[in-house]
Specification:
Strand content: under 5%
Structural class: mainly alpha
Helix content: over 70%
Order of helices and strands: HHHHHHHHHHH
Distance between the termini: 38 Å
Number of strands: 0
C-alpha cells in the first residue's frame, strides 16, 4: 500500500513539473533559455492568491465546474497504476471508471463554457466535444484490447502484466504497440497539445481548450490548470505502462523506472511540438480516426 500512496503523492506534487519539462524542451529547440523549471507552480500560487470574479449571466454550473473537474481527475488518479505499481484503489472494471471520470471532467468544462453565453467559449466547446468523441473511442477500444489480451478487467492487472511482459520481446507486443501508438495520439488530443491544439496560442479563432476557460480566473483557474497537469500524468502513466518493457523485482526501482518513463514522455511531447506544426482543424478528426483505427486493429489482433 505504501508504494501506491507514494505514486499518488508524487503525482499530486510533480505533475506540473511534466508541463515544465515540455516547455523547457521546446525552449531548447527554439534556442531559448525558457521559463524557470518551477514556473507552473509559481503560476498556480499566483492564481490562488487572486480573487475570483463571476459574471451575473452565469449560474452555479460555472462556479462548481473547476472543483468538479479537480475532483474527477483525482478520482481517476486513484485508479491509475504506474507500471508495476498498483493503483491506490483498484477494482474490477476500474478502466471504465477511469474513462467516465475523465468524461465527467470534460462535461463540466464544456458546460461551464456554454454557461458563460460567450460565442468564443461556445465555439471552443463545440470543437472539444467533436474531437473528444473520437478520442474517447480510441481510448476505450484500446483499453478493451489490452483487457482482452491479458483476460483481466482492471487497470492495475493490465499494467502489471504489460510491464512484466514488455511489448518488445513478447508475442503480444504488436497489440501493445498498436495500443500505445493510439494512446499517444489520445494523450496529445486530450491534453490540448500540438498537433491538435496549441496551449500557448492567444488567437480565439484557433483555440480549443484555452478558449473554454477564458472567463475563469483566480483559484478557479488554478484548479483547472492543476487538473490539466494531473490529467497529463494519468494518461501518461497508462502510455508508459504499456510501452515501456521494464520489470524489476523491487517496487522501488519499478516506481523509479515509471517516473523516468513519464519524464521521457514529457520530453517526447516537447520534441513533437518543436518539430511539428499544428494541424488544420479539418485534419484533426482524421488524426483521431487514425488513433481509433489503431485501437480497433489491436482489438481485432487479440480476437483473431
Amino acid at each position: 500500500m505504501i508504494f501506491p500512496m507514494l505514486h499518488v503523492f508524487l503525482a499530486l506534487i510533480a505533475s506540473p513539473l511534466l508541463l515544465s519539462v515540455i516547455n523547457r524542451t521546446k525552449a531548447f529547440f527554439g534556442g531559448r533559455t525558457g521559463a524557470p523549471i518551477l514556473q507552473p507552480y509559481l503560476d498556480i500560487a499566483k492564481l490562488l492568491r487572486k480573487g475570483t470574479v463571476y459574471s451575473r449571466t452565469t449560474t452555479w454550473i460555472f462556479r462548481a465546474a473547476p472543483s468538479v473537474e479537480l475532483a474527477s481527475v483525482m478520482a481517476a488518479l486513484a485508479v491509475t497504476p504506474l507500471g508495476a505499481i498498483p493503483a491506490l484503489l483498484p477494482f474490477q472494471g476500474d478502466l471504465v471508471f477511469l474513462a467516465y471520470s475523465l468524461g465527467l471532467m470534460r462535461f463540466f468544462t464544456v458546460s461551464a463554457a456554454l454557461d458563460t453565453g460567450s460565442a468564443f467559449c461556445g465555439m471552443g466547446a463545440s470543437r472539444e466535444v467533436q474531437f473528444s468523441a473520437l478520442a474517447e473511442v480510441a481510448l476505450l477500444v484500446g483499453l478493451a484490447a489490452a483487457a482482452c489480451l491479458f483476460r483481466v478487467f482492471s487497470l492495475t492487472d493490465i499494467c502489471r502484466q504489460a510491464w512484466a511482459a514488455g511489448p518488445v520481446s513478447w508475442e503480444g507486443g504488436g497489440t501493445l504497440l498498436l495500443v500505445a501508438a493510439s494512446f499517444l495520439v489520445v494523450l496529445l488530443a486530450e491534453n490540448s497539445r500540438i498537433p491538435v491544439d496549441d496551449p500557448n496560442t492567444h488567437l480565439e479563432l484557433t483555440m480549443i481548450h484555452e478558449v473554454m476557460i477564458l472567463d475563469h480566473g483566480g483559484p478557479d483557474l488554478a484548479f483547472i490548470e492543476y487538473a490539466a497537469a494531473l490529467k497529463f500524468w494519468i494518461l501518461g502513466s497508462l502510455l508508459v505502462s504499456l510501452a515501456l518493457p521494464l520489470r524489476f523485482a523491487d517496487p522501488l526501482p519499478d516506481l523509479a523506472a515509471g517516473l523516468i518513463g513519464l519524464f521521457f514522455l514529457a520530453v517526447t511531447v516537447g520534441v513533437i511540438e518543436s518539430v511539428m506544426a499544428r494541424l488544420k482543424l479539418v485534419r484533426v478528426p482524421q488524426l483521431l480516426v487514425v488513433a481509433g483505427v489503431l485501437s480497433f486493429l489491436a482489438l481485432f489482433d487479440v480476437m483473431r
